Amino acid sequence: MQQFYENHYGSMAGENRVASLARFIRPWLIENTGHPVRVLDIGCGNMKMIEACFGLLARGGVAKDDNCRVVGWDLSRQAVEEARGRHWEAEVRDITGAPVTDDEKGKYDLVIFLEVLEHIADTGLAIRNIQDLLKPGGVLILSTPNLAAWYNRLLLLLGFQPHMTEVSNLPIRFGCRFIGKLLGEQEGVQDVSAGHMRLFTFRALKEFLVYHQFKIEKVLGVSNHKYDFVGKAICMVWVGGSGNLICSARKQC
């Protein structure tokens, strides 16, 4: 998996993802303006996404002030070096690599955890560590693909492998090869692996967070593809059928 992260870091900073993150950070930033707060971005990549998000918010009149300290963790050494080169505070760190130390417990007011959960085998350990890192009442912003997306429901109905649930690391979409053709991929040459190990439905994600003592405050369906007009329409009326899910949840203990 280490090579996967080295190859794919920084690939999530598209306009739709940045805008979705900004919608969740904006009210939190307004609420905490002037207060000394710490933000942890787990799976930060080269931190271009969080940088773009704060830039978008600043252009809309909500700027991050000097009281807001942002730290990034990522598995990719190259991504962390790039983030540091652009003057962000970042370190190579695995959220499931070691228990949270006593000094780190309750250190952060906000944890950002975007498109990471699905890449982790021990999701329970990851979310427990995030619980420990957050202050009482701290907020988690999390996003992950939706296994029960509208297109996956159709694919399964017709007997195809759901999208982004590859059965191997080979550059072939076994069970759903026509999608590769639609996307103009060169089968056997182009890397198509999403690296997903755990996939959640809307229902499963809600139950998972509540079990780990988070109170869900807001959930949105998201389409991360610019020209997915069908997906965008579905997101507006049916969160459970959207391609991706993003939510904010507050630590309850």
Main sheet summary: 7 strands, mixed
Low-confidence stretches: none
| Second-tier CATH architecture | 3-Layer(aba) Sandwich
* End-to-end Cα distance: 33 Å
What's the mean pLDDT score? 92
Q: Helices and strands: which structural class?
A: alpha/beta
* SSE succession: HHEHEHEEHEHHHEHE
What is CATH's topology name?
Rossmann fold
Shape: globular
Q: What's the name of the CATH homologous superfamily? A: Vaccinia Virus protein VP39
Characterize the structure shown:
The protein has 253 residues and is of the alpha/beta class. It has a single domain, classed as Vaccinia Virus protein VP39 (Rossmann fold, 3-Layer(aba) Sandwich), CATH 3.40.50. The protein has helices spanning 2-8, 15-32, 48-59, 77-85, 123-133, 150-157, 177-182, 202-211, 229-237, and strands at 37-42, 68-74, 89-92, 108-114, 134-145, 214-222, 244-251. A seven-stranded mixed beta sheet has the order 3-2-1-4-5-7-6, with helices on both faces. Helix 2 crosses helix 3 (48-59). It is globular and about 55 Å long. The protein starts with a helix and ends with a strand. The model has no long low-confidence stretch (mean pLDDT 92).
